[in-house]
Design goal:
Length: 311
């Protein structure tokens, strides 16, 4: 049955509203060039909607279709019963500033630095599950940030994290992050990134260099040193950025046809937003006590590590 012009306009107006709401939780850093796609991009299924670092199985239409499940998880990357794919999508899209592979997350990056330090000299080498957990996270983190085209490392970590271990990433307070960044800032010796094939040997160098780069490239690091909420500016785009993603008004674009409204991608966006029903969270523990973790980093001679590597 052919849509009337009035019905098409009504559907388009609903899509404008739904696109704004459903895109809002996704940070712009997840998209190419850190530019959120517009509704026009979505209608045309442009590449802007499908970042190369996101598996198609959890692509933007998947997020729109399952928006209510993400909302009932409070957009958290923690483990929730029966929601492995939602957790996968949360990590890949960086919906949670701790559960992410992005080096723009201070939480994830400091976890990576600590993993490199611990794996270099494990305190409890017999705890094979913990060693495997932090090793898999480190491998996945490197693969994501070096833009390795396959997802095997990230998928391997996520499957192990969700199904085979009680461990989770450490969440540091802003005060602790401030201390760690101050230590990095005081380093007298620089570092440079190494060949990805050598990441197990140079993981500490990478972590330090990425932290140094972040001091240069991201304003929120200065905010952290002043005691503000560190990752908020990177992971919470705010209303202006969310509205910028709409890219069109309520007027019906001339290129739209009935086929556009019947596509699965459009139907996913049209799915109504329901009342939130909190999900049941699975039990997990941070892989190291945050205070002990901070002490391990702060008491490590990172400068000596860099000198030893002759960088």
């Amino acid at each position: 049955m052919e849509l009337s012009h009035t019905a098409a306009v009504s559907l388009h107006q609903k899509l404008v509203v739904m696109f704004t709401k459903k895109l809002a939780p996704i940070p712009k850093l997840s998209f190419m060039g850190e530019r959120k796609p517009t509704l026009d991009d979505y209608y045309k299924l442009n590449d802007a909607c499908f970042p190369a670092r996101i598996p198609m199985s959890v692509s933007l239409p998947y997020c729109f279709d399952n928006y209510n499940l993400f909302a009932s998880n409070e957009f958290s990357g923690c483990k929730f019963e029966g929601r492995f794919d939602i957790a996968r999508a949360t990590w890949f899209w960086s919906l949670d500033k701790t559960h992410t592979f992005s080096r723009q997350s201070s939480q994830a990056l400091v976890n990576f630095l600590l993993a490199a330090i611990v794996l270099a000299k494990p305190e409890d080498p017999k705890n094979k599950q913990l060693i495997e957990f932090i090793h898999k996270f480190r491998v996945a983190f490197v693969a994501y940030n070096f833009r390795v085209p396959e997802f095997d490392d990230q998928e391997g970590f996520l499957s192990f994290w969700y199904h085979n271990t009680r461990y989770d990433l450490i969440e540091f307070s802003n005060r602790t992050l401030k201390k760690i960044f101050r230590k990095i800032k005081e380093l007298k010796h620089g570092a440079r990134l190494q060949d990805p094939a050598l990441f197990s040997q140079y993981a500490v160098v990478w972590a330090v260099q990425w932290l140094v780069d972040m001091k240069k490239d991201f304003e929120w690091v200065d905010d952290m040193e002043k005691g503000h909420n560190a990752s908020a500016r990177v992971f919470e785009d705010g209303l202006a950025a969310s509205l910028a993603g709409i890219g069109m008004n309520n007027d019906l674009p001339t290129y739209l046809t009935q086929e556009h409204f019947t596509r699965p991608e459009t139907q996913a966006l049209l799915k109504d937003i329901e009342e939130i029903k909190p999900a049941d969270e699975k039990h997990s523990v941070m892989w190291m006590d945050p205070k002990a973790a901070a002490d391990r980093i702060l008491n490590s001679d990172l400068s000596a590590m860099l000198q030893k590597m002759k960088l």
